[in-house]
Amino acid sequence: xxxxxxxxxxxxxxxxxxxxxxxxxxGLMVLLGITHDDTAEKAxxxxxxxxxxxxxxxxxxxxxxxxxxxxxxxxxxxxxTRKGRRPSWSAAAPGPVSEPLYEAFCAALEALGxxxxxxxxxxxxxxxxxxxxxxxxxxxx
Length: 141
Known about the structure:
Layout: E1 2-15, E2 18-33, H1 40-52, H2 62-65, E3 69-73, H3 95-111, E4 116-118, E5 126-140
C-alpha cells in the first residue's frame, strides 16, 4: 500500500461537474495506491499512521486538530516506468481487490475519529488542492 500525503488548506475532487468530496483545512489529502499483497490490516495500520502523523502546523496531527482528510484511490502510484516510455500498471491491484481495501482504509480512519471525504473509486476525477507548506510525503506500508 502506498500513500501520497499532502498537507492542504483546501482540497476537492470532482467527477464531471459534480464535487464528490471536499475539505477545508488544515487537513490532509491522501492519494492511496493498492498492490496485490495488501490487506485490511495494512490499510488500518496506514490509516492510524496518517491520522497521527505530525505534519500539520506546530507539529500537530489530524488526531490533535480533528482535521479532515480527503482520500482518493490512485492506482497510478504503482506505475513501473523503469522500461520504455509507457508505464506498466501490473503492480497495481485490480478493482475487485483494491476497492474493498480503499474502503477499509477510509473506514479505519473514520473509526479513529476522522472526518473523511472520498473520491469516487474508478472514476475519471479532477482533483484541486492548495498544498500548504508545501508538505508532501510518500508512505509505503
